[in-house]
Design goal:
By secondary structure, this protein is mainly beta. The protein is built from no helices and six strands.
């Protein structure tokens, strides 16, 4: 069981906004990072369920679905 998610970036100079969103649309955590190659998002306090991780950099964004089952 993974207790965290590690996100790696190719271009570490870009500003990246990371949002962890619950299935009801509530934003649980927002991180804004720059000048880094990776971030670690802890999952230990989250209940089992469906979450979404949205990464936004410049005009682009990517959303990934997370399924947590403990």
């Amino acid at each position: 069981i993974n207790n965290s998610i590690v996100v790696q970036f190719k271009n570490k100079k870009d500003k990246v906004t990371c949002r962890l969103i619950a299935s009801n649309g509530q934003t649980l955590k927002t991180l804004i990072v720059s000048n880094t190659q990776q971030i670690t998002i802890p999952l230990t306090l989250l209940a089992k369920g469906i979450y979404f991780l949205t990464l936004q950099f410049g005009e682009q964004s990517v959303t990934k679905k997370l399924l947590l089952g403990k």
